[in-house]
Design goal:
By secondary structure, the protein is an alpha/beta fold. It is about 40% helix and about 15% strand.
Length: about 325
C-alpha cells in the first residue's frame, strides 16, 4: 500500500514508517522537524529511513493546508496515519497556542485532505490523557471522557469528535488510538525514561512527581507499532449494534472507532526507577515533588476491544523494554 505518515521523524512515526517499509509498503513521511526537542535526534531517526527506495521525505507543517493538499494530490496515499501533534501535558500549560495550531488546525487539514483524497482509512493518535479526572480503572473506551484536565487532553478529545463528524458526514473511515505512555529506543527526550536515564548517568537528581506514587501503563514501542499496523489494516466500519438511545462513544453508526492501546499492566513509578537503576548500575538521587497541574495519578488501559477486533497482544515486559532502551541510549550517546 501507499501510506502517508505524519510525524515521521517522531518517536512513534519513525518506528512505524520503518516497519511499514520492511513489509513492502510505500511510505510518504511528513514532518516539520520543529525544535520542541533535540532536532538532531529527529534527523537520526529519519536517517534510518532516507535511503529506502520506497520512502519519500516531505518537510512541512500540517497546519499548512495548501502544502498538505499538494502532497495528497501528488502522492495519492491510500491510507493515512496522523501522528503529527504538539505533545506534552506540562508544555500545554506554558504554550497553549501551539496545541491549537498543530492539534486542531492541523488535524482538520488532515481530515479535509483525506476526505477530498478518497483515503480508505485514517488512523490518528489520541491519548490516554483524555481520561482526565476519571478515577475508575482500568480506563475503558466506553467511559465518558468529558472532563479533561489539560489543554493537550482537550485537543485530543477534540480530534476524536472531529473525526466522528467526518466519518458521519463523508463516510470517511477513521480510527483513533489512545496511546498509553509509550517508551523504548529512539524515545522522546521529554519523557520520564529518557530524562531519568540521562540525569542518573550525569549524577544529577531526578524530579519524581506525586512523590513517586504514579502508576503508568508503560507500553513498549514495538507493541505500539504492531497495534497501529493491525489497526491500519482493519478499516473502521459502522457498528451494527450502535444505538442512539444508548450511544457508545467508542463506535457509531458511521465508520468510526476508538481504541485504547496500552500494556494493560500498570507499573508504579518507583519500581520503574528501580529497574532503570538496576540496568545502569547506579542509584538515583530523587527530588520528591507534589503532583503537577494537568497530570493524573494513574493510567491503566482496558485493551479488550483492540484485542478482540485486531488481535492486539502486548508482549514486552517492562524489564526487557527498559533494558533495550538503556542499551540503545548508551550506544547512541556513547555513554
Amino acid at each position: 500500500m501507499k501510506i502517508l505518515v505524519t510525524g515521521a521523524a517522531g518517536f512513534i512515526g519513525s518506528s512505524l514508517a520503518y516497519r511499514l517499509l520492511e513489509r513492502g509498503d510505500e511510505v510518504i513521511g511528513v514532518d516539520n522537524l520543529n525544535d520542541y526537542y533535540d532536532v538532531s535526534l529527529k534527523r537520526s531517526r529519519l536517517a534510518r529511513l532516507e535511503n529506502h527506495p520506497k520512502f519519500t521525505d516531505l518537510r512541512f507543517d500540517i497546519e499548512d493546508g495548501d502544502a498538505l493538499s499538494r502532497a495528497f494530490s501528488e502522492h495519492q496515499p491510500q491510507r493515512v496515519v496522523n501522528l503529527a501533534a504538539q505533545a506534552g501535558v506540562r508544555y500545554s500549560l506554558e504554550n497553549p497556542h501551539a496545541y491549537v495550531s498543530a492539534n486542531l488546525v492541523g488535524f482538520v487539514n488532515i481530515l479535509e485532505a483525506c476526505r477530498h483524497g478518497g483515503v480508505e482509512h485514517l488512523v490518528y493518535a489520541s491519548s490516554s490523557s483524555v481520561y482526565g479526572a476519571n478515577t475508575r480503572t482500568p480506563f475503558s473506551v466506553h467511559d465518558n471522557v468529558d472532563h479533561p484536565i489539560s489543554l493537550y487532553a482537550a485537543s485530543k478529545k477534540s480530534n476524536e469528535l472531529m473525526a466522528h463528524t467526518y466519518s458521519h458526514l463523508f463516510e470517511l473511515p477513521t480510527t483513533g488510538l489512545r496511546f498509553f505512555t509509550v517508551y523504548g529506543p529512539w524515545g522522546r527526550p521529554d519523557m520520564s525514561l529518557f530524562l531519568f536515564t540521562k540525569k542518573i548517568l550525569a549524577g544529577e537528581p531526578i524530579d519524581v512527581f506525586n512523590y513517586g506514587n504514579h502508576r503508568r501503563d508503560f507500553t513498549y514501542i514495538d507493541d505500539i507499532v504492531e497495534g497501529v499496523i493491525r489497526t491500519l489494516d482493519n478499516i473502521a466500519t459502522a457498528d451494527p449494534d450502535w444505538s442512539s438511545d444508548e450511544p457508545d462513544s467508542a463506535s457509531g453508526s458511521a465508520p468510526y472507532r476508538l481504541y485504547n492501546i496500552g500494556s494493560n499492566n500498570p507499573v508504579e513509578l518507583l519500581r520503574y526507577i528501580e529497574l532503570i537503576e538496576e540496568r545502569l548500575g547506579m542509584k538515583a538521587e530523587k527530588n520528591l515533588l507534589p503532583l503537577q497541574p494537568g497530570d493524573v495519578p494513574d493510567t491503566y488501559a482496558n485493551v479488550d476491544s483492540l484485542m478482540r477486533d485486531v488481535g492486539y497482544r502486548p508482549t514486552t515486559p517492562i524489564e526487557v523494554g527498559i533494558t533495550r532502551f538503556v542499551d540503545w541510549y548508551r550506544d547512541y550517546y556513547g555513554v
